[in-house]
Amino acid sequence: MTLPETMRAVVTMGHGDIDQLALHTDWPRPEPAKGEVLIRVGACGLNNTDVNTRSGWYSKTVTDATTGGAFEEVGEDDPTWGGAPITFPRIQGADVCGKIVAVGAGVDATRIGERVITDGWLRDANEPDNMNKTGYFGSERDGGFAEFTTTPSRNALAIQSDLSDAELATFSCSYSTAEGMLTRAQVGPKDAVLIPGASGGVGGALVQLAKRRGARVIAMASDAKHKDVAALGADMILSRTPDNLRTALGDEKVTVVADVVGGPYWPTLIDILERGGRYTCSGAIAGPMVELDLRTFYLRDLTFTGSTVITPEVMPNLIRYIEAGEIKPALAATYPLDQLREAQAAFIAKTHTGNIVVCP
């Protein structure tokens, strides 16, 4: 197969507003290095990490909710999830579905032609469990907002599915984040899980994956999205921020809160946890600064778990769930690659349910 020397790519040129996303029609096509594969991108999903990295929201100098726009001040020492400076220009995009079209040295050539989705977590081959030696696809190396991308062979996971490329591109980041949270909180059939922001990509994944574990699921979402959230399998659906959450819950006893929202409503979520309950978090889109009464924390024997770096088995497990039809995509919309700015604006507006994807 003859491959072009250049490609179309949307490149993030620096921290700032959405105008930092620049379309290039003659960007150099990457070559797979030793141990890597070259993927022709069929589709790539959008995620909060794309917006947060571009805007610099991860920096501790920023204390506001994530808005997708530029912040007045972004610290240059800690503007990414990993606390290390990101280098620009950078092609973002972590959720790739596509086909392997070339391989680097040391990779079996029979992989060429495989349909794959990407595992975003870039691990040290000798210490895959070492969280301090991880990076992320589309952050520490170029990702999938382009016609071609490279990744370590072990990060390109073969998949057999009748789902479209766009549907498969909804899984990697959102669903692995959700499964990582539920794994860390040890969610099981005896749990009742409360999920704020259940209409988002991670929220919807949490609904499905918690149900898969046999838990009872109580979802929170804006009223206009209740029908969509119900289709994901939630047992009970509440408004996004009920005035009296305890009254709204009735006799429900919440043992786990799985949260990517944070913000001013956060203390209310903690207050309704049963004694011995668990709070697990992998985001704070409504704001990272929250108020905690430590007496609630220790007198109620609560456990808090942060969840970012997933364990290595999470992505292979997701492949099994997808192939078995145990979870389904929640594809909200697709855009062509050259409309990534419009796609990200729609993502930030959050009028959708599920995931937004771009296709080269």
Structural class: alpha/beta
CATH homologous group name of the largest domain: Medium-chain alcohol dehydrogenases, catalytic domain
Relative strand content: 25-35%
Work out the helicity level: 10-25%
Rg of Cα set: 20 Å
- C-alpha termini separation: 19 Å
What does the model show?
By secondary structure, this protein is of the alpha/beta class. It folds into two domains: 6-170 and 329-359, Medium-chain alcohol dehydrogenases, catalytic domain (Quinone Oxidoreductase, Chain A, domain 1); 181-306, 3-Layer(aba) Sandwich (Rossmann fold). Helix content is 22%, strand content 26%. The chain contains ten helices and 17 strands. The chain has helices spanning 48-55, 165-168, 172-184, 201-212, 226-231, 245-249, 266-271, 294-299, 314-323, 340-349; strands at 6-12, 21-28, 36-45, 95-103, 115-118, 121-123, 134-136, 148-152, 156-158, 192-195, 216-220, 236-238, 254-259, 273-281, 303-306, 331-336, 355-359. The strands form four sheets. Strands 3, 4, 5, 8, 9, 16 and 17 form a seven-stranded mixed β-sheet that branches. Strands 12-11-10-13-14-15 form a six-stranded parallel β-sheet. The protein is globular. The model has no long low-confidence stretch (mean pLDDT 95).
